[in-house]
User: Fold this.
Amino acid sequence: STHEPSWDLPSELASDLVIYWPTAYHWSPTVEWLNHIFISISKLVGVERAVIDQGPYEGTVIAQFFYQGHSYRVAIDFSDYMDHICQEALEGATCYFKMQYRRDGYGDDRIVPGGYPVSSPYFYQFLSKLRQDCDQKAKLYDVYGRFGLRFSAEIRRKAIALLSAAPDLNFVGGTEFVRNSRFLRDMARTKIGIDLPGNGDFCFRLIDYLAIGVCVIRPRPRTELPIPLIPNEHIIYCHEDLSDLVPLCRRYLADDAERERIARNARNYFDRYLHREQLARYYLHQFARALSRRAGGWPMPLGHRV
Assistant:
């Protein structure tokens, strides 16, 4: 079972650590979501912007953690490809955070799950209102899901066809593009949110649903978050071939209490493990664990999971 992790920081780490964070990224759109981690880490330890060579590290951001006279490389891999590890970035790294972290790992204890961020740089400004709408306003949709067809087009087309062919589900969505703000407002007003793989198994859509507090149905991802989602507690998994997607939607539409329980659990899960302030603590905690392994121990327990 999953228990509350201990992500408290050793006091000497909090007081002595300085992080040099890159002023620019190899891929400029990275700022839209990585800034959440930057903002939250800045509240916990000293952080300075610096010119750091991002080199040929495609899909990866490099930061330098300076502690007690030593500099440590930390890599954050946001590549959509779970089997890809940037070896150039991993070389010499103390810690390597992999967002699309393969469930069976990589055989290197420096590579750890990187969590996954929300979709918008403005998301946290709107989260309280989205949750209020979710909790207090009548639902507009029974089953909702919007998907582009640039990635994973086959499974997305199949899901849309299955859901559209079941008129009792009142499915709304499809492939029509809407602005992110509209998408989020719609999420808050649906009973069931459908999530599907994109270029990677995790998409922003899943994290947004969890944050708002929506009952999500999707195929089980091959990737894993720092604290794994528990099926039928935080999320509902359908078969990979979608053969039970429609029956599951019917089941949870008919069971208000169970659907709402899972939605509440999803929101609580996000707050405990994926909120940007929690992710910041997790990143620093994993760095402390990496130092502990190198030094042969740390003066305080660094337990993560029981």
